[in-house]
Amino acid sequence: MIVGIDLGTTNSAIACWKDGEPALIPNAQGDVLTPSAVSFTENGELLVGLAARERQSTDPDRTATVFKRYMGTDRRITLGKKRYRPEELSSLVLASLKADAEAYLGEEVSEAVITVPAYFNDKQRRATRVAGELAGLTVKRLINEPTAAALSFGIHERELEEPFLVFDLGGGTFDVSLVEMFDGIIEVRASAGDNQLGGEDFNEVLVALMRKSFDLGEDPDQPDEALSKLLREAAERARRALTNANEVEMRVVWNGAEHTRALREADFAEAAEPLIQRLRDPVLRSLRDSSLRASELAEIVLVGGSTRMPLVRKTVTKMFGRFPNATIDPDHAIALGAAVRAGFLERQADLSEVRLTDVCPFSLGVGVAEYDHRGGMRDGIFSPIIERNTVIPASRVETYSTMQDNQEKIRLEIYQGEARDVVDNVRIGQLEVPVPKGRAHEVAVDVRFTYDTSGLLEVDANVPGTDIARQALIYDKSDDELTTNLESRRKQLAKLKVHPRDQAANAAALARAKRCYEGQLGPMRDQVSQIIGAFETVLASQEERQIDEARERLIEQLDQIEGENYL
Amino acid sequence: MMRERAAWKLLGIEPCADERAVKRAYAAKLKEIDPDTDIQGFTQLREALQIARYDARYRKERDEHPERFVYEDEDYDEADEQDAVEIGDLGDAMFLQEPPDLSALNVSAHGNALDGDNVRVAQDLGQDPASMAPPGDGLDAAFGAPSQPDPIDEHFGALSQAVNKTPFVSKHDRQAREAVAAILADPRMEGIEFAENIEDWLANVLVDTIPKSDGAIEVADAHFGWRAELARATPRWRISGVAQRADDVACVNALADPDHRWHEAYDALQSGAPEDYSFGERSRLQPLVVELIYSLRQHNPGIEAQLLPGRVDSWMELGHVGMAPELVQSEGISWFGLILLALFATQIVRTAIIWVGGV
Question: pTM here?
Answer without folding.
Answer: 0.81
